[in-house]
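WARN no homologs supplied; continuing
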Amino acid sequence: MKACIYGAGAIGGWIGAGLAGAGATLSVVARGATLEALQAHGLRLEQGGQQRSVAVQASAHPAELGVQDLVVIAVKAPALIEVARQIAPLIGPDTVVLTAMNGVPWWFLQGFGGALAGRQLQSVDPTGEITAAIPAAQVIGCVVHASCSLNGPGHVKHHFGNGLIIGEPAGGSSPRSEALLALLLKAGFQASASAQIQRDVWYKLWGNMTVNPVSALTGATTDLILGDPQVRDFISAVMREAKAIGEHIGIPIDQQPEDRHQVTLKLGAFKTSMLQDVEARRSVELDALVGAVRELGQLAGVATPFTDALLGLARLQAQTLGLYPR
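OK structure emitted
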């Protein structure tokens, strides 16, 4: 198995180390300090109080790595268009592309969505370049339930969670998804297969789409956000809009916002990934987390005034900081 990680950040590095441990020949597309660290020290993972290093072939140029059996895309959504423009040398006719990303992916409505099936979401793939470069027929979706961070370039620290949920965009099972599940289990992940991966994507998004941008706007950790009654009510209103959209397109959520708040509160005080991006002055992934929900609401005929307000405020802040294009 030849496996390549495109996006050797915290989650990508964690998955890559696991795949190497399962016997995969691992390569990584990286640049700058991350490339230098990978070439000098390999991919380093700190987990369970132990640290290990994995040998990788790292390059800034996908053509130097060649066609892969498995490509794991683990970048933030704003970087995906650049990935699409560079990824072609890695993908052959039988290559599986695993998308380990937050938010609504470009393939979300492929093989799913009722009257919306097959629609291209302008919020996540406005030019169609991503769809053209990474065909949905070669994609397997992945929802990550884990917390990792970077101690430094190419040096991952795993905190908690070990879950990977995978599934075919068109639903059901397939020989390739079964083979990938077996590999992930061998790698030590708590991997499971979903009969409808969009449902799992949507459920994770249901919490991320609110707390992430609110934390970016306020600088507050999640315990403080959900501890403020007015902010909590606003977040619940946004979540009810997303819940209505899900019901309309065939992915209902059988919980109420308050149920999800209790899950989030159990994680304690933590900074969301979007707040960390704002503090580090990195681009924020508003389109995949919030813009796509608004677009799906428009397509489904569901009003989203609270989602619109959240998107507008978070976008204006990000534009003011130079973290989102005007």
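The domain at 199-320 is CATH 1.10.1040.10 (N-(1-d-carboxylethyl)-l-norvaline Dehydrogenase; domain 2).
OK
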